[in-house]
Inverse folding.
């Protein structure tokens, strides 16, 4: 039986084994575990019952990750997306006074739209229409993005009223602990020790526990709490014309965040072919679209692929087993959500910083001596962390690519979809600027 599973997940071809995949899955889970506490807190502000939101978060993350692992066989974990959950709560439910049940209906419709476009092959066309050098910039930009999040979580970078950001207090015990954790992970990585990131996370967690730096609220929840949100979505209300823009935002941001994450994780894992072809692309898109539909039925906002999956890839994960292990741990977390919070930000921050630094290797694929390539790639690279959005960074890159190539007389008919995407992004940026 194990041999058949190893053959299905291509262990021999990928150069991996069960121990490595299990460690990688646990690493991804520990890096993503914050979502179990953060997502319910955000959705609760919209009126979603917190215990139910916690159960829905764990269940949808488990379902999406396991489905991705089994069907697409990629080490990509899924969970309710940060950014989209804030949009769900603060822009849709609070600002527009839309009930959370109706907002869930909009998420459901966007998921169905994803499935339809995947079946029609349109999402695949979009992926192939974008120049591969922009994807190299996306992968590096996401590296800067998650490293920046790591710096923030470690307290190494903090807000400043005059300069926007500045260096934090290195005397802060959590900050010092995070830096020591980063040093430990790098040393283990240099020594080629498997599971270096996981060992680092667990070591810092243990140290933080002994120093009294871990804090979490005890509020037992379980899957039974889902009764407050499961199948409570209002699809008919979401079909109202006034929610078309909301559905479009859920769809649009999820589409490009997933594309960017897919390329970043795929490049880091070496799973993208030399001709930039991505095997089993349809299955990947099917898994994330189905997870969004499932999540809306369970009671949470849009489910997306997580860039933190790169932590598991950096730990050696190469097959779908990594995602399956992550999913199983999320399922277990549904009953132990209060204890997931024992892993402090100081423990996961160095993992994000280390992985982010490793992802910058893709910038060597960009032709920096060609302004038609360099400027769009640069905009993509820096605007992902500066705007805190993968979709925004990729959008600016696509618009710049199209405008510069038009101005230089390099328009090609076969690139029509790229120019259409640029027009859509430009319209979105103009709309956001006017709102």
């Amino acid at each position: 039986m194990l041999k058949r599973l190893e053959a299905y997940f291509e262990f021999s071809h990928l150069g991996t084994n069960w121990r490595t995949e299990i460690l990688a899955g646990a690493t991804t889970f520990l890096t993503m575990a914050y979502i179990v506490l953060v997502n319910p807190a955000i959705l609760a502000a919209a009126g979603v019952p917190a215990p139910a939101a916690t159960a829905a978060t764990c269940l949808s993350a488990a379902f999406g990750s396991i489905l991705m692992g089994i069907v697409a066989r990629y080490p990509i974990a899924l969970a309710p997306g940060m950014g989209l959950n804030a949009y769900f709560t603060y822009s849709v439910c609070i600002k527009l006074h839309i009930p959370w049940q109706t907002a869930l209906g909009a998420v459901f419709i966007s998921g169905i739209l994803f499935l339809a476009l995947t079946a029609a092959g349109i999402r695949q066309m979009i992926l192939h229409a974008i120049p591969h050098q922009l994807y190299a910039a996306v992968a590096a930009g996401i590296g800067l993005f998650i490293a920046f999040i790591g710096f923030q979580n470690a307290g190494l970078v903090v807000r400043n009223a005059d300069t926007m950001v500045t260096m934090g207090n290195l005397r802060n015990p959590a900050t010092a602990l995070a830096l020591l954790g980063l040093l430990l992970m790098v040393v283990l990585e240099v020594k080629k020790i498997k599971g270096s990131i996981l060992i680092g996370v667990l070591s810092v967690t243990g140290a933080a526990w002994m120093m009294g730096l871990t804090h979490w609220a005890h509020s037992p929840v379980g899957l039974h709490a889902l009764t407050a949100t499961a199948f409570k979505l209002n699809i008919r209300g979401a079909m109202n014309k006034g929610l078309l823009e909301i559905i479009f935002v859920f769809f649009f941001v999820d589409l490009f965040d997933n594309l960017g994450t897919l390329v970043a994780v795929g490049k880091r894992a070496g799973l993208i072919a030399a001709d930039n072809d991505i095997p089993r692309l349809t299955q990947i898109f099917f898994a994330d679209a189905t997870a969004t539909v499932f999540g809306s039925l369970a009671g949470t906002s849009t489910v997306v692929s997580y860039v933190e999956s790169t932590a598991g890839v950096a730990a050696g994960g190469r097959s779908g087993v990594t995602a399956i292990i992550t999913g199983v741990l999320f399922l277990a977390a549904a009953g132990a959500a209060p204890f997931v919070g024992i892993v402090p930000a100081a423990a996961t921050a160095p993992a994000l910083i280390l992985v982010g630094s490793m992802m910058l290797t893709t910038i060597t694929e960009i032709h920096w001596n060609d302004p038609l390539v360099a400027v769009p790639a640069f905009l993509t690279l820096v605007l992902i962390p500066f705007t805190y959005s993968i979709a925004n960074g990729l959008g600016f890159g696509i618009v710049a690519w199209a405008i510069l190539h038009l101005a230089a007389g390099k328009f090609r008919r076969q690139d029509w979809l790229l120019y259409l995407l640029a027009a859509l992004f430009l319209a979105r940026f103009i709309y956001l600027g006017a709102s």
